[in-house]
Amino acid sequence: MTVIIIVVVVGLLLLFVALAYNSLVRGRNRVDNSWSQIDVQLKRRYDLIPNLVETVKGYAAHEKGTFEAVTNARSNAISAQEGGDVAQQAQAENQLSGALKSLFAVAEAYPDLKANQNFLQLQEELTSTEDRISYARQFYNDSVLGYNNSIQSFPKNILAGMFNFEKREFFETAPEETGPVKVQF
Amino acid sequence: MSEPTPQPLARTDFYQEIRRNKWRTFVILLAFVVLIVLVGVAVDILLGFGIGGVAIAFVIALGMAFFSYFNSDKVALAVTGAKPADGPEYQRYHNLVEGLCIAAGLPKPRLYVIDDAAPNAFATGRNPKHSALAVTTGLLTLMNRTELEGVVAHELSHVKNYDILASTVAVTAVGTIALLSDLGLRFWIFGGNRDRGDSNSGAIGVVIAIAAMALLILAPLAAYLMQFSMSRKRELLADATGVQLTRYPPGLASALKKLQTDKAVVHHATRATAQLWIESPLDREEGKKGSRLNRMFDTHPPLDERIKLLEAM
């Protein structure tokens, strides 16, 4: 009888450990995945920019300085993303947002451009990509919150300590970057 | 922000609101179980086949509910005349849904449009992989971007919270109770009551029998009220979860205010699909609201109350 009880207790304990460990792994993978989702959306923005520059060029060819600033900011942001340094990346993204702002400010002066269907579509794409970037960051932070809560609360914290599940950092935007890129007409 | 409401609510955050509404659903589901057991006991007292009766009624109700569970999206889309949202004019709608799906960690649902001037929207589908979202053309023209985001986030929350599953469970429970009490009353009236004299005799037996009968008559009504109550709680939950996605309560609040002033009624709405929509597509007649009894049969909480809750978030 006592043997059966011991077997049952040990079995239940092992079952709990297995389930809890799996849920920790799931949580950590969700955090990693949601981090890479941010990159997917950033890349989407990089891909839209050459198109946008070309379209604006067709109407405002002599605004060279603005185009160069956008193109440079874009390549800086891409290399910062590849470099993997989060602070540097945030700064490069900032610069890109600023350059895009001035590109749209330039577009303001050209009524034909503002009526161009292609331009309007690109503008819609860019706005929604900005949204997506912030939603992806939000989802990352939500995943981190869930994961950190689970590794810090009892009893999973014991397992998390044993198997080296580490607390993750939230994504925080630089103060200048709070607020979306303003697209004005 | 100005606070014109007579009794301002205490500030809540959406996490709290989500927890509260999930708890309420759990309580209602528990109440369903209790009610089924009670009805089973009543049938047992009157006719002597309580457990068998519960089993039969449950299997029938479950079968019917599962059919509607697996076909809920097809039926809802067909009944409302929804068409796939293809074409460049719906790009904004597509973009907006994609963004919110990223925030929710959901796959993108199939998108549909209903050609109707009344602003409204609904989501359907048994799980996130099989979900579909439909909005009326009226909603797309009337709402600005943040308002539309609020509405879409509310609808995606229904998907995220598995509300189709929740309502299937409620429908199964209601079906079981309705069938069981119907069965019980029929058998009792048409002479299936052989056991009654044997097991319970005297005044106490009569009292118990009358109580059991009363329970059988009242149980289906109680079950329907519980179903509607759960539907209203799920709406509040979807409002709160929607805010978790947009992080912008004023978006949905202002959308609901626009719905409040709009008096158009969706053409293809029936009682059967009522609980799917962002707001009740039915009874918009003036003067009908306010009656407490009427409110108990509503699938949605009053818009005023939802706006007030959003403004407190």
Task: Explain what this protein looks like in three dimensions.
- The complex is a heterodimer of chains A (185) and B (313).
- Chain A is built from six helices and no strands.
- Chain A has a single domain, classed as de novo design (two linked rop proteins) (Up-down Bundle).
- With 185 residues, chain A is mainly alpha-helical.
- The longest helix of chain A is centred in the first third of the chain and has 58 residues, at 2-59.
- Chain A is 80% helix and 0% strand.
- With 313 residues, chain B is mainly alpha-helical.
- Chain B has one domain (14-281, 291-311).
- Chain B is built from eleven helices and four strands; from the N terminus they run ααβαβββαααααααα.
- In chain B, strands 1-2-4-3 form a four-stranded mixed beta sheet, sandwiched between helices.
- In chain B, α6 (163-189) runs antiparallel to α8 (202-246).
- The longest helix of chain B is centred in the C-terminal third of the chain and has 45 residues, at 202-246.
- Chain B is elongated.
- The model of chain B is unreliable at 1-9 and 284-289 (pLDDT under 50).
- The chains are: A mainly alpha (185), B mainly alpha (313).
- At the A-B interface, α1 and α5 of A face α3 of B.
**Structural class determined from secondary elements of chain B:** mainly alpha
Question: What is the mean pLDDT of chain B?
Answer: 79
User: How many domains of chain A, as an integer?
Assistant: 1
Binned strand content of chain A: under 5%
Give me the CATH fold name of chain A.
de novo design (two linked rop proteins)
Bulk shape of chain B? elongated
CATH architecture of chain A: Up-down Bundle
Helix content of chain B: 55-70%
Largest sheet of chain A: none
The named CATH superfamily of chain A = LemA-like domain
Distance between the termini of chain A: 81 Å
- Structurally, how many domains make up the residues of chain B? 1
Care to count the β-strands of chain A?
Answer: 0
Q: Could you give a short account of the major beta sheet of chain B?
A: 4 strands, mixed
The percent range for helix content of chain A is over 70%
Give the class of chain A from helix and strand content and strand pairing: mainly alpha
Measured on Cα atoms, how large is the radius of gyration of chain B?
A: 22 Å
